[in-house]
Design goal:
- The protein has a single domain, classed as Serine Threonine Protein Phosphatase 5, Tetratricopeptide repeat (Alpha Horseshoe).
- Helix content is about 45%, strand content about 5%.
- It has 17 helices and eight strands.
- Helix 2 runs antiparallel to helix 5, helix 3 packs across helix 4 and helix 7 packs antiparallel against helix 8.
- The longest helix is centred in the first third of the chain and has 23 residues.
- The radius of gyration is 21 Å and the shape is globular.
Length: about 450
């Protein structure tokens, strides 16, 4: 989701956020002269929120990279020279990790833009108010969902009313950090409740069609992810089914056609827009190789992962071997291509898993969703359907798209010898943010004090 170059007002607004070129200003505040007072400013600000969400620090690649490195488990290896991703891969993250700080600060910058939009929605043209508010709620809910998954214990760990998530800031923060806007961390339960509220409201407010921007189906697709993390299989099933039954999306003709596209494929529900003129794609930068304009092939795909695939599986055929004989993910091969974040195939997998667990057949049977849709598209025959079979198909279908550690945690698995609820699989609260807020307000995660 990339927008054209923004107006000067927006440039001033975005200066409060942080990229990998770090600043030391509080990351969730704006100055009083930047409060929005008219329709044009609000819409320009919404562009800025999308820009933040699609930056390299968030869905432009780093959120996905973090999720895969944390869940490596002998299936991938970090071979790059950058220390920050290596810390994530080794589960030895320092509290001053600049990538982690950038993810935190950029997400909160996007959230604060959304808060300002929601607060000033009455100045937007009446015909656009529902859509603009819905988009802001969608982006805010999405960001809080991504933050709580990384910086808090998983929902599956229990104790959700006492385990700490992230600070919930749902009103505009104006001016410098003060006693009035020092916000402690909320519980995991409180954050998930806010995420559900935001996304549910967004689903109601958003239109079915909105270009590459937020729609009711995007909100439903992310809701299905949220419910799946909570083991609310009825909610996960119904939201996934809502998207599938809409008929608005179709699986691309081949598995490979889902990736390396300059425009959204028919199966893209949510994708980050990348062009040669604008857009971040850290997935390409870290997963591809110099032959295709990337770095040095920082993420190696190992034989343990390749062995998951059957002979003739089109998903296996997408991997390629470089000059050193190392497997590479073909999903992120080409430069200046969009980043699929939520695909229709995931909705089929979620519906199949949820129906199986619930012994229901809402929309279709698990057998049909797995054999007639997912495996058929991969060029494979039918198999007996068990929960393990469904989860293996999910692992292969969504490999290296940024979902693995979240599946590991909700399924209570282990990776690299770490249990799903190990403190080392939770990010530290950035020390720069703790110090900026001050007053001992932000409590650090266990193991990082």
């Amino acid at each position: 989701m990339r927008y054209p170059i923004l107006y000067l007002l927006l440039a001033l607004l975005l200066a409060t956020g942080c990229s990998k070129k770090l600043d030391i200003k509080p990351t969730q505040s704006i100055s009083e002269d930047q409060v929005f007072t008219n329709d044009a400013n609000i819409k320009a600000a919404l562009n800025g929120a999308y820009d933040k969400v699609s930056s390299a620090s968030l869905l432009g690649g780093d959120l996905q990279l973090f999720a895969e490195l944390l869940a490596a488990d002998g299936e991938i290896r970090w071979a790059g020279t950058y220390n920050q991703p290596e810390e994530v891969y080794n589960k030895a993250i320092l509290t001053n990790n600049s990538y982690v700080f950038s993810t935190w600060s950029t997400a909160y910058s996007a959230i604060n833009i959304c808060n300002n939009i929601i607060s000033a929605i009455n100045v937007v043209n009446a015909d656009d108010q529902d859509r603009i508010r819905g988009e802001a709620l969608f982006l805010r809910g999405l960001m809080y969902f991504e933050l709580v998954k990384l910086f808090g214990q998983p929902y599956s760990a229990g104790n959700t009313t006492s385990n700490l998530g992230v600070p919930l800031i749902i009103t505009p923060t104006i001016g410098n950090i003060s006693d009035a806007n020092r916000v402690p961390r909320n519980t995991v339960e409180e954050v998930y409740t806010q995420v559900l509220d935001d996304l549910t409201d967004a689903k109601t407010l958003l239109p079915e069609e909105n270009g590459v921007y937020a729609t009711t189906y995007m909100a439903a697709a992310v809701l299905s992810r949220v419910y799946l993390q909570m083991a609310n299989y009825v909610g996960a099933r119904d939201e996934a089914n809502y998207v599938i039954e809409s008929g608005y999306y179709d699986l691309p003709s081949t598995y490979a056609a889902s990736f390396n596209n300059t425009a959204n494929s028919s199966g893209d529900i949510l994708a980050m827009q990348v062009t040669a003129q604008d857009g971040d794609n850290d997935m390409h930068m870290f997963w591809s190789i110099p032959d295709y304009g990337a770095r040095d092939g920082d993420v190696d795909v190992l034989q343990k992962h390749i062995n998951l695939y059957e002979v003739g599986d089109a998903r296996r055929a997408l991997f390629y071997i470089d000059d050193l004989g190392i497997y590479r993910s073909g999903k992120w091969k080409l430069q200046y291509r969009n980043i699929p974040c939520v695909r229709l195939a995931e909705m089929y997998l979620t519906r199949a898993e949820s129906n199986f667990r619930l012994s229901t057949n809402v929309g279709d049977t698990p057998d049909a969703d797995i054999n007639d849709v997912i495996r058929a598209k991969a060029g494979l025959g039918s198999i007996p359907i068990t929960l393990d079979a469904i989860l293996l198909e999910r692992h292969k279908e969504l490999a290296h798209e940024g979902q693995r550690i979240h599946d590991v945690k909700r399924l209570k698995l282990s990776v690299d010898g770490f249990a799903y609820n190990d403190n080392k699989l939770v990010f530290p609260i950035p020390i720069r943010e703790i110090n900026a807020v001050g007053g001992g307000v932000l409590q650090q995660n266990p193991g990082y004090q």
